[in-house]
Each structure stands twice: as structure tokens, then as C-alpha cells.
Amino acid sequence: MTVLATALDTADEAYAQRRTEMLAKLAEVEEAHGQALAGGGEKYLTRHRGRGKLPARERIELLLDPDTPFLELSPLAAWGSDYAVGAALVTGIGVVEGVECLITANDPTVRGGASNPWTLKKALRANEIAYANRLPVISLVESGGADLPSQKEIFIPGGALFKDLTRLSAAGIPTVAVVFGNSTAGGAYVPGMSDHVIMVKERAKVFLGGPPLVKMATGEESDDESLGGAEMHARVSGLADHLALDEPDALRQARRVVARLNRRKAHPDPAPAPPPKYDAEELLGIVPGDLKAPFDPGEVIARIVDGSDFDAFKPLYGTSLTCGWATLHGYPVGILANARGVLFSEESQKAAQFIQLANQRDIPLLFLHNTTGYMVGKEYEQGGIIKHGAMMINAVSNSKVPHLSVLMGASYGAGHYGMCGRAYDPRFLFSWPTAKSAVMGPQQLAGVLSIVARASAAAKGQPYDDEADAGLRAMVEQQIEAESLPLFLSGRLYDDGVIDPRDTRTVLGLCLSAVHAAPVEGARGGFGVFRM
């Protein structure tokens, strides 16, 4: 075995400082998670329970197999916006009757579960994950439909939700809707386009237009039950396949539907794997607060892979990028991890070859980010950094094996692309609280703007105001710093969640299990033209 050695000194003062800084950032993340867990607040939660209804997360808990994990996705959606953190929707992956499923649940304590623009983005991301990994979709529905004041941002793109449901079904991926309350207007098409539909008696209301709208449109008098009640849909319209007596019964019936799906994973689960040789707790003290300071990604790899066993690829070449093979919870992975931030020509070529090898072997790739981007300067431009960086990005773009990404530190510029950032469709992408991502670092970006402004003034023969320049630089640095932080990025769904570093192995294991529900097959050629 090639067990990684560690040089981490947990008694060192620098380690203690890094750990303290990480814990402070984690506290900020936990506070934001607390806002998502609070939903609409105590008043609306009490009212919801008073109506005999369960909160969204309790519904999910009853649906899942006992003592199995739930990987919540995009929990901080809408952070920093005018909408509630979490976007009135809970999404994630959990096990139901032994089957990994993608679960979505409206949170009716937040404006009646109405969908705002971030709800839509979060739901579309969930469907994307379900489709790529062939995970059955279970929708726990209770929503008043679109949040009307924001309809201009929801109506047109929102049609993709219904398109997704039909495409999932057409691809043989089961869809199940459990309706607990309102599912009105466009929301009525969620059960309408699902393969299996369960409705709760005297609670579910599914109609395109409620009694007031029907009265306005046609003059017809009607009531909720005759127009769209669960019993009517079970006995008359046929929209409901199953009529549940109450919420627990609805969730029991949903479990029985999943039990009868005849689902089999494309790849069987591997045997239990040995844990890393080193304590995951130590991951708190590896990444420095100052991301310009380097750290050894091998220390991270040694604390997440099975047995800390790692076979390096080209360890003496392109040493700013660590590449190699390992297993994680028994699943084979190829790992690319930034060692010293900057990517040079050698690292780019090394990565392209490694990615091709992973595709030849049908091995998923894990990208561990800490990069300031590709190297700049006359020597490097003349040495072909553009064509070599393009080679790496080409390989990432056309790779067919599943990609997982974790932003540990910096993820700037085209380095974010080459390391499979969000635009390159990783199956899953998570951030540590220490991560930052932007077109470049705040100081560099502010400095570039200052240089350009100074040159422009000189070209016009105008004096340059150094005091105003200092103020502009400070303002730009502050803005870019705020916009590069993980809470900001996660709020905009540029990742699938900000995770505790100590949970990295568990989160990646759950993701690898999910991606192996679908066939894992690499590209055989088809990488386009590599500039040599």
C-alpha cells in the first residue's frame, strides 16, 4: 500500500490559528443554516402544526429508511436576497426502501410554499441531479404556486419544471408526487406529470383555478373539495392513484410505491472500506485564512480516502497539481488537487493526460480546488500557457465520467474552469467555509482597475486623483471580497452546499453512491483538437 505520510503538527501554533479561523467561518455557516431550518418562523410553524400538518423536514424524515442519511442540497439558496434562506424548498438525496431518491419538499411555512425565483433555480438543479444520476424523484407537494409579485422572473423559465418531469419519466426515471395541501395553478401539473400520485384526504387541493378564479372566469359556483379535493381526484377525475387518510399514511404509501419500482443500481455497492489513517478533525487546521499561503493537499487527501492510500501520477512533474488514484468508501476515484495555487503549462498537460486516463478506465474524478488560475507573464505566454490551459479545459469539458468538485480555498479565473467549476457541469460541487471564487482576487482586480484608470488619465493628459483612487480600490476590494465568499456563492446556487470539512468524506461517499446509480462510462476519444 502507498499510504500517505503526514507532516501536520497539531501542536503547532499555526495549526491552532488555522483551526480557530475555520471554526469561526463554520459558525457563520451554521447561523445561515439555522435561518433555513427556521422556515417561515415560529408563528407560521405553530399555525402549520395547529392544522395537523408536519413540517417539510419531518415529512422527509418519515419518508426515509430509518437511520439512513439525508444529503441536503442547496440549503442556503436565496441567502443574501430578499427571499427567505432555503427558498421555501428542501431538496436532497435519501434512501427510501433501499433506493436512493432525489426528494423535494415545499416548505409551506414560508409564504404558503409559494415559489420565488430561487425556489425555481433550486428545483431545476435538483431535477438536473436526478436526471444525470438516474435517481427516482419524490415530490412532497404543498405550494400556493408562483409568488405572484415575482411572476415575471418565474413564469417563462418555470415551464422547465414540467418539462423536466416528463423527460425524467421518458428516460425511465420514476417520479412520485405526494400532495399534502395546495397544489394550484401551474403547481397542479406536478402531480399531473408525475408517474405516481398520492393525495391526502380532506387536505390535498389540486386545481388549475380555485373557486374564486372559476367564479371570475365562468360564473360557476364551486368549493375546494368538488373542484380539486383528494377524494374527487381519487374517485372522479382519476388524477390520484392513491388516497391517503393522513400525512403518515401518505408517506407510508409513497414508500410502498418506491418498493414496487423494481429499481436496480447500475453498479452494486462496494464492500465496506477502511477509514483514513488520520483523524478527520484535523481537516479544520489545514487551510490557512490567507489563501495566498500554500498548503499541502496531500494532507486533505490523506484524511478522506480509504486507508489514506493514494497512488500519485507524475509526482515529479507539474508539482503544483497533485494527481493520483484512490478509493473513497470503496468507489474508485481519480483526484486532481491544487498544491500551490498557480497552474503552469506542465500542470495543464499533466491534468489533460490524467483526465483521459480516467475516461479510459471509467473512473470518476474528484477536483479539490485551491487555485489562483493559470500563470501569466511573458515567459509563460511564450511557453504556450494559453494552448496548454486550453488543453486542460478541453479535457474537462469533454470528459464523460462523473466529476465531483470541492472548493477548499481559492478558485479564481480560468483555474476555476479547468478544475471543473459550476459551468462545467460537475455532478456535485461543494464548498468549504474557507473557499473563495471570483474572476481574480480582490486586490488584483482592484489593482487592475486602478492601473487602467491611471493609464487612461495619462493618455488624456489629465491629472490623476490618488486619493479617489485609494477610495475606489478599497470599495472594489470590499465588493469583490463579499461576492467571492461561500455564503454569497451558495446563495446563488453556484455550489450544492457549504460543508464542514470534517464531513467531506461522508458527503463525497454519498455522492459517489448516487452517481453509481447510473452507468459510469468514460469518453473514448471525442476530446476535440488539442493544440500541441
From TrEMBL:
Residues 275-522 form the CoA carboxyltransferase C-terminal domain. Coiled coil: none annotated. One of its GO terms (molecular function) is transferase activity. Keywords: Transferase. InterPro entries: AcCoA_carboxyl_beta, ClpP/crotonase-like_dom_sf, COA_CT_C, COA_CT_N, MCCB/AccD1-like. Residues 22-273 form the CoA carboxyltransferase N-terminal domain. The keyword Cell division does not apply. It comes from the Bacteria. This is Carboxyl transferase domain-containing protein.
